[in-house]
């Protein structure tokens, strides 16, 4: 009798132990889907159990912990989510599906969105003599670029002679210099990056060093002109009053 009860209890527990699984297109590997920008990712969540293959369990989707809004006919038994088009913000987004009545029965999948750096074309830069030169190169990519190279007129920039500073924060590569001189800094600059997945990308900068212009403080000049105009106007008014008074005396005398 005890053996029969134990067997029945085992069968009951097995029937209640329902997990979920996620199928994806493109297929995942180790819980990660490799995809690119402007593509489509389809996810399908289904309950699974050792004692039954079909169920009326309600399913819930989360994106980075936030519930995804689903239609009523996309919740019971099986539920699908479509990500289209894939955008930058979808990179490293984790989609989780779980049973509505048991959140511990869940499965998750993460997107790894790859994209090249947006680096191309050319730009014209005009800088006054003795001013500061700053050139920015957009290197944001996934996977990150493996190298950033700056050249001037076809040769790698001389950091010491040109007093250049190079920085890279993973998003922007920057070349800068202070107190620039035409003989040292004018010319064609090239920023070149190498992506381990997408290859080489470059952008050109035509830098022209112009003569230094004398800049006058605008606001003090305006204030000075206003003061001069008001003073002149008051002087004219005072003289006019004096003239009127003299003329009146003459007429009365």
Notes on the protein architecture:
By secondary structure, the chain is an alpha+beta fold. The chain has 2 domains: about 20-115, Immunoglobulin-like, CATH 2.60.40.10; about 120-210, Immunoglobulins (Immunoglobulin-like, Sandwich). It has helices at about 1-15, 180-185, 220-250, and strands spanning about 20-25, 30-35, 40-50, 60-65, 65, 80-85, 95-100, 100-115, 120-130, 135-140, 145-150, 155, 165-170, 170-175, 185-195, 200-210. A 5-stranded mixed β-sheet has the order 2-8-7-4-5, with no helix packed on it. The protein has a 5-stranded mixed β-sheet with strand order 9-16-15-11-12, with no helix packed on it. Strand 15 (about 185-195) and strand 16 form a beta hairpin. The protein is elongated and about 115 Å long. The relative contact order is 0.12. The model is unreliable at about 1-15 (pLDDT under 50).
